[in-house]
Amino acid sequence: MLALTNIKRIVIPLLFCAGVTCHSQVITVKEAAGGAPLEGVTLVSEHPASFAVTDRNGQADIASFRGSRRIEVAMLGCQTAVRSFQSLEQDSFLLFLAATSLPLEEVVVSATRWEQREGEVPQTITTITPKAVAFQNPQTAADLLGTTGEVFIQKSQQGGGSPMIRGFAANRVLIVVDGVRMNTAIFRGGNLQNVISVDPFSLERTELLFGPGSVIYGSDALGGVMSFNTLNPRLAETTASFVSGSATLRHATANRERTAHVHANAAWKKWALVSSFTYSNYGDLRMGSHGPDDYLRREYVQRVNGQDLVLQNENPRLQLPTGYRQFNLLEKVRFQPGKHWDITLGFQYAATSDFDRYDRLLRYRDGLPRSAEWRYGPQRWLSNQLAISHTRANGLYDEMVLRATFQQFEESRIDRDFNDPLRRTRLELVDAYSLNLDFQKAAGKGHQLFYGLELVYNDVNSRGKDTQLDSGETNPGPSRYPLARWASQAAYLSWRFRLSPRWILHSGARFSSQQLHADFDNRFYPFPFETVNLNNGALTGNAGITFLPGDGWRIRASLSTGFRSPNVDDMGKVFDSAPGLVVVPNPDLAAEYAWSGELGVVHQWREWIKWELTAFYTLLDNAMVQRDFSLNGQDSILYDGELSRVQAVQNAAGARVAGLQTGLDLALSRGLLLSARFTWQRGEEELEDGTTDPLRHAVPWFGVSRLSYSRVRWRAEAALLYCGEISYGNLPQEERAKDYLYAGDAAGRPYSPAWAIINLKAECRIAKDWFVNVGLENMTDRRYRPYSSGIAAAGRNFILSIRANF
Questions:
Q1: Can you give 504-558 as a three-state secondary structure string?
Q2: Which among 77, 162, 454, 735 could disulfide-bond with 191, CB atoms 3.0 to 4.6 Å apart, if both were Cys?
Q3: Each residue of 452-502: pLDDT tens digit?
Q4: What is the mean predicted confidence (pLDDT) over 677-694?
Q5: For 275-296, what is each residue's pLDDT tens digit?
Q6: Using the 8-state DSSP alphabet, how is residue 156 labeled?
């Protein structure tokens, strides 16, 4: 009996493992030096089309790769290996990757929604890994983008961050989260802070696609696409279930930040779930000691006993009030019923406290502050998504992904003039529905097709409320937007052809149709219309080529078109954009179109030097810009008790942006790496009188240079971040009117000074799964304000974080 029991203990597990082997084949990838398992290694095959990522044990199921003659195994910081399934089988599915001095190309997904090597894409793409996020320790997703040195970040308040890419910003760049657009019908043309709703701690991968992405993503993708991929539940590659995750505590001195984060992944063979939670509390932001005195906050407003008082700020470097709180929640459940199907249900929620629009509190009128209050109410974002993928070659596709998403956005604006008891509240709610259906298909030797459909619907609800503080009486007030519905339908087709090992061709086209219906409330403003209907269609396309001549050279060129259809903010808002100016609706807006070209050269010499240079040019036709207007024949109207000049968003003649991006990675010795990124651009728009004016979002030259040293258990880095000057003569006319944002030159005229800061960072693994990260940002305590920003950046800032993996 005892012998029979022992036989069962041996034979049954063997039979079970044999059964598992029939349905799966697990590879293990380890470091060549040390033998530690490598998590996050990507394995890609085109024939058959398969993709896998290793788990925390360095393992991945590659049964779907069976028969492949070319499997690329890649990870940032390691040499890429190319193997066949047969050779891996001969090595018992154990593979070692050697470290490399320079970061090599990785698989990217943002270019065509599908996995492609970066070196085969004709457009510039930057990838930000979780390892880089953990080391740089950004407070928000906007700060994360700024760490690249390739995206310029503008801030009007601490709770914000508006990315500027190649001369475009706000609703001319696209935010994508898990393959779905975040941009809504009320994304404005100025600066906006919606990107801070994305939690850096919950990101599995961030990709920046520079230049128009309209073929794949439709309207708004003129300057570029920011694609955020959040944590995806990882399944157990073997029969053993496991739980993994990470927890972080962080403190920063410049704004007394207190942040706590935790995420966990529970995995079984067919089921997995991931949970992530982050809470941050930011105090008022302190600026630096050395710089223009124009930025100092010498006084502020406080209401005492029903009266607004101007109080002296005891510490003028402290920007009062700028503090706020934020929390983020992510939940995902993944189910894999078979080797061909993958289903994920995701939920994300982000919310802030109220946060003050700091730049609006800097404006004065008749020697007194113009506003006693100007703040945003809680910014809330909710997203529910069902994603279903099917991978099995058939006549229609090799892989299909269906994404059905519901998003809800809430934002509000609350303002009150100095010594005015009337508080105005404007609340906006947007329900956004989208359906994306994407396919990829190998069509003959070297040919790859990507095609799909997209349906988007936005329901905009805008309300106004006026409250008398003295009596508490509340009455309806004018809304910022009309009640509106915005819809889009689109189909796209993209083709990639590997003409030879050295030549890769890309082309694609997309047709999009947009409809907008708005109902205006004429109780408060005498609009000469009650309803507006817009209907626009656009055909966009791209063509690109990648040439790989060998010896580490890569040459790429692309031509693309983009467009942006007027949204509710463009056509229908009522808003005071600057003192004495009021923007009113314009029902005659048409879509704007962009033509863009890019030429890039990349050269890598062994593992020591990698250099790249990209030149780009974009022509924007029928550009939507804010210009003087008339309402019922009047060039001025009474708005919030002030006679204001009327303006509206209108189609101008055009705008142009040209620029250069360059990057350098130099391995000085083993573990010692010098890297640099630099961007220069110039933009101008045509005025009504035929003259030109600098384009508002074409920022001065900027970049970052880093010197880092890495060992097995620790890493240290010194970084120089810098930005050029914009003189008064090169400042756009729209910005000259905002002298409260800028320093004064020798003649007292507004301008944006150049600046440079030094950051020091270090991270050490103090135990197997414990890490300490320390940073000293703005070491010289420089007082500076990035171009067009309404708030000065942080002064000297000490950062300490502790992270534990489990």
A1: EEEEEEEEEEEEEEEECCCCCCCCCCCEEEEEEEEEEEEEEEEEEEECCEEEEEE
A2: 162
A3: 999 999 999 999 999 999 999 999 999 999 999 999 999 999 999 999 989
A4: 90
A5: 999 999 999 999 999 999 999 9
A6: S
User: Please, are residues 465 and 511 in contact by the beta-carbon 8 Å criterion?
Assistant: no
What amino acid is encoded at 550 in this protein? G
Distance CA 235, CA 334 (A): 8
214, 562 Cβ separation under 8 angstroms:
yes
Q: Do the strands 553-564 and 750-751 form a parallel or antiparallel pair, or are they unpaired?
A: unpaired
Angstrom distance (rounded) from CA 466 to CA 476: 6
Secondary structure (DSSP) of 318-364:
EESS--EEEEEEEEEEEEEEETTEEEEEEEEEEEE--EE-GGGGG-E
For residue 189, the 8-state DSSP code is S
The yes-or-no verdict on residue 641 having pLDDT over 80 is no
Q: Looking at 16-171, which runs of residues are DSSP E strands?
A: 26-31, 42-46, 49-53, 59-61, 71-74, 81-83, 94-97, 107-108, 116-117, 125-128, 152-154, 162-165, 168-169
Classify 114 as helix, strand or coil: coil
Cα separations in angstroms, 584 against 6, 387, 461, 610, 649? 84, 40, 18, 51, 8
Distance between CA atoms of residues 457 and 489, nearest Å: 9
In order, the DSSP letters of 480-513 are SS-EEEEEEEEEEEEEEEE-SSSEEEEEEEEEEE
Q: Which residue has the higher pLDDT, 495 or 34?
A: 495
pTM for the model:
0.90
Secondary structure E strands in 565-671: 575-578, 581-583, 592-605, 609-621, 624-628, 636-639, 642-651, 654-669
pLDDT at position 45 is 85
| Partner residues linked to 460 by β-bridges | 430, 484
Specify the long-range contacts of residues 700-705, CB closer than 8 Å, at least 24 apart: 700/724, 700/725, 700/726, 700/752, 700/754, 700/787, 702/149, 702/152, 702/678, 703/149, 703/676, 703/677, 703/678, 703/679, 704/147, 704/148, 704/149, 704/676, 704/677, 705/674, 705/675, 705/676, 705/677
Reference 441, options 410, 414, 401; nearest CA is 401
Residue-wise pLDDT tens digits, 738-789: 999 999 999 999 999 999 999 999 999 999 899 999 999 999 999 999 999 9
Question: Can you give the pLDDT at residue 10?
Answer: 36
* Closest listed residue to residue 730, CA positions, set 754, 686, 700: 700
Q: How far apart are CA 105 and CA 102, in angstroms?
A: 10
Cα distance from N-terminal residue to C-terminal residue, the chain: 42
Write the DSSP assignment of 230-264 as a string of letters: E--PPPPSSS--EEEEEEEEEEETTTTEEEEEEEE
Residue 143's SS3 state is helix
CA 132-389-178 angle, 5° bins: 35
Residues 6+ apart with CB under 8 A from 493: 449, 450, 451, 508, 509, 510
> 68: which 2 tokens?
């492949």
Measure the CA–CA gap between 365 and 280, rounded to whole angstroms.
35
Q: Which two tokens stand for residue 762?
A: 């270090």
Distance from chain centroid for Cα 405: 18
Half-sphere exposure of 567 (CA within 13 A, CB side): 22
Closest by CA position to 680, among listed 758, 615, 595: 615
Q: Are 434 and 176 in contact (CB under 8 A)?
A: no
**CA pair distance 609, 193, nearest whole angstrom:** 37
Distance of CA 800 to the CA centre of its chain: 25
Distance, in Å, from the CA atom of 31 to the CA atom of 97, rounded to the nearest integer, reads 5
User: Which tokens is 503 given?
Assistant: 């030549």
pLDDT at 173 over 60: yes
Radius of gyration of the chain (CA): 27
Q: State the DSSP code for 290.
A: B
Assess contact for 399 and 49: CB atoms under 8 A: yes
109 token code pair: 């997904």
Q: How far, in Å, CA of 487 to CA of 458, rounded?
A: 6
